[in-house]
Amino acid sequence: MTVKCPDCQKEVLVSGDAEVGEIIECENCGAEMEIVSLDPPRVLLIEEEK
Ligand SMILES: [Zn+2]
User: Fold this and answer.
1) What CATH code would you report for 2-45?
2) 28 alpha carbon to ligand 1 midpoint, in Å?
3) Which of 2, 15, 36, 41 is geometrically suited to a Cys-Cys bond with 11, CB 3.0 to 4.6 A?
4) For the segment 27-46, what is each residue's pLDDT rounded down to a tens digit?
5) What is the distance in A from the centroid of ligand 1 to the CA of 47?
């Protein structure tokens, strides 16, 4: 399945055995996001502190 990156709006592949709370990374922009729901798939962008 895929989710839409909240940052760049590109589709990001989520592995089939992903779990809520797992951190995935957008291959397009490198943003990290936490899976908050699987059905429907939803992610929350993790804001990096700089
Ligand atoms: Zn992205």
Assistant:
1) 2.20.28.160
2) 5
3) 2
4) 999 999 999 999 999 999 99
5) 12
